[in-house]
Amino acid sequence: MAQGYCDSRFVAIKDAFTKNLEANLDLGASFVVNVNGENVIDLWGGHMDAARTKPWIKDTITTIWSTTKTITSLAALLLIDRGIIAPLDPVAKYWPEFAQRGKQNVLISHLLSHQSGLSGWEAQVFFEDILDVPRSTKLLERQAPWWEPGTGSGYHAVTFGHLIGEVVRRVTGKTLGQFITEELATPLGADFRLGCPDSEVDRMAEVVPAPPSTNYEGTGAGHLTPNSVAVKTYTGPPLDAGIALTEEWRKSEVGSANGISNARGVAKLLSVIANNGVVNGQRYLKQETIDLIFQEQSYTLDHVAATKIRFGLGFALAAENNPTGILPQDHKLAYWGGWGGSLGIIDMDHNMSIGYVMNRMELGKFGNTAGRQYVTELYKILNQQAQG
After folding, report:
1. Class of domain 3-387
2. Where is each Beta-lactamase-related domain found (predicted)?
3. What average pLDDT does the segment 226-240 reach?
């Protein structure tokens, strides 16, 4: 049964949410749509655990995997807005050791658009290794790019947060997690953090991994040659959703993957962008900073995802033949999603941010069956309202 609030215009989504829980399409989930700073949909329900002994309640949180990247990008945009870093500056300006092995011309914009050539680790690493963020970041610092930086994207599945996080640390003296908490989550009242302190563990839902597959993160990369960028990325480190059940995961700060939140937290943070930089009367970003997001950085066949992705600064953007299959091609959109199904979407045309977070994972490129259904139904309703 769906709990929470739903504006009467969107009752079909609440009905679908309830049906999906009853049909076991979702185990536990939350779905939030924020328009002009207000939640018009704020739903939750289901269970926190596979055994169905704990109900998913209003403040339940869980790992959101790569939807974390949207918040890491927001943190970088905050630094750009303040003039502390600039998109066209070399990364080495702030992190001198990064310049080694042919990386002297890698720009901040390349990090934010998956174009640095560092989409995975050359050294053999496992997920446990990348939880030691300083050590695994040092390995990236010493690594040569896998393709010429700035010539196209290759999805930085795990390295994205390490790279941007180190820039944040160099210019602020704070870890990425500290910076997000102090500068974004706390002032906004958003339920989000990297990792999870012991005090919050009781409300953290259990991640239920999808059945194993060789098609890494649903990308179809499994058929590629062993030395391809895609396979090197998804085996360096090898994906292991079970890591999210460990104390080590909760104690680490992985800016690509271990954001712990719910749909309300994601939608609240992304409302900073959707509302043109202002939330609750406080300005977080200038309009010109938000405009940077929508400047196309790359629109190529992604080396890792094996599909064309149009990247702006920090986010994927709407495009013809949109790889999501559910988002409008003609809207001013910025988005990304997480392994297993979570979503973070910004629609500037509606001043709307969307968050979807669940605990049972499903293989697929963008969203799971339930989340895709809610977003599809949302746009169907909005289109009907616009027409009449």
Report:
1. alpha beta
2. 19-369
3. 87
